[in-house]
């Protein structure tokens, strides 16, 4: 094993002296100088994180840990993730949005790179958000609204504000899952309905105050019950559906190509005629793999 070069030593020195930004700069040089191509995908992701001035190693404050999580997506398996036509088009729109946001910043104009995904469960809404974070080299922050609702309703809006305030400190992909839990259309002006209405307003205010570099992707299975004013806060609104037979076949083929124990057979081809969700198809493929591995180890 080769010894440490000057840049590696510089990283260690800067960390020891708590010179974090200098350590990041030296680490970027280390990434660029790696010629082995070993772990190239991970290095590329971490280099983007360093250049964006972010880190997935930030620890969540104790008062937010019950509601959201930061996930390291550097290990995202792009080699077995099939990007459908609709998903690719949406990713391209989000990518263009990041460039538009950078340009508009020169004129002092804000741009909200926000997307609402809706459709039946299991169609890949959450996984698309992970894919976007991986491709853009950004931290992935996940918030499930079903965990956010507090028995003391006034605290729900307070918790929501804390989460968005925290995320303002970094560029990231913020995934808002099950947004229908608190984003339902406002009804009455008294009692619990009135409090839920105030929470919806608080959420809209948080979305209005997004800062440069943030990408928000919200997901719901019940787009029909969302507040109309809330839906207008999202620049992109895309329905995710089950893959058609051709796309399901491509999804299966991509997975099989990434697993040396598997190969295409008639059973896999016939499976595409069953009108499955992407989640159901992935479960089926994993079960097939488990069966093959089990035969090998017996």
From TrEMBL:
Keyword Lipid metabolism on entry: no
SUPFAM superfamilies linked: P-loop containing nucleoside triphosphate hydrolases
Gene3D superfamilies: P-loop containing nucleotide triphosphate hydrolases
Keyword annotations from UniProtKB, A to Z: ATP-binding, Hydrolase, Metalloprotease, Nucleotide-binding, Protease
A Pfam family per the record: AAA
AAA+ ATPase domain residues: 111-244
EC class name: hydrolase
Enzyme Commission number: 3.4.24.-
Gene Ontology molecular function, alphabetical: ATP binding; ATP hydrolysis activity; metallopeptidase activity
Single GO BP term: proteolysis
Protein family per UniProt: Belongs to the AAA ATPase family.
Protein name, UniProt field: ATP-dependent zinc metalloprotease FtsH 3
GN (gene name): ftsH3
């Amino acid at each position: 094993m080769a010894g440490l070069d000057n840049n590696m030593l510089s990283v260690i020195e800067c960390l020891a002296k708590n010179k974090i930004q200098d350590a990041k700069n030296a680490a970027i040089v280390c990434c660029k100088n790696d010629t082995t191509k070993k772990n190239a995908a991970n290095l590329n992701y971490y280099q983007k994180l360093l250049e964006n001035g972010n880190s997935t190693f930030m620890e969540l404050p104790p008062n937010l840990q019950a509601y959201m999580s930061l996930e390291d997506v550097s290990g995202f398996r792009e080699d077995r993730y099939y990007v459908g036509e609709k998903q690719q088009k949406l990713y391209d729109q989000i990518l263009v949005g990041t460039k538009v946001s950078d340009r508009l910043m020169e004129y002092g104009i804000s741009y909200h790179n926000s997307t609402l995904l809706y459709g039946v469960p299991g169609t890949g809404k959450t996984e698309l958000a992970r894919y976007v974070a991986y491709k853009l080299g950004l931290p992935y922050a996940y918030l499930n609204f079903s965990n956010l609702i507090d028995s003391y309703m006034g605290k729900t809006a307070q918790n929501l504000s804390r989460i968005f305030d925290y995320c303002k400190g970094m560029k990231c992909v913020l995934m808002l899952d099950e947004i229908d839990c608190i984003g339902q259309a406002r009804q009455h002006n008294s009692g619990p309905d009135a409090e839920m209405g105030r929470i919806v307003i608080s959420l809209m205010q948080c979305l209005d105050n997004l800062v440069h570099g943030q990408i928000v992707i919200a997901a719901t299975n019940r787009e029909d019950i969302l507040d109309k004013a809330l839906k207008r806060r999202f620049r992109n609104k895309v329905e995710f559906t089950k893959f058609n037979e051709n796309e399901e076949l491509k999804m299966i083929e991509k997975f099989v190509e990434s697993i040396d124990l598997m190969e295409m057979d008639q059973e896999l081809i016939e499976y595409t005629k069953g009108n499955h969700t992407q989640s159901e198809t992935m479960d089926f493929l994993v079960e097939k793999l488990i069966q093959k591995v089990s035969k090998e180890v017996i």
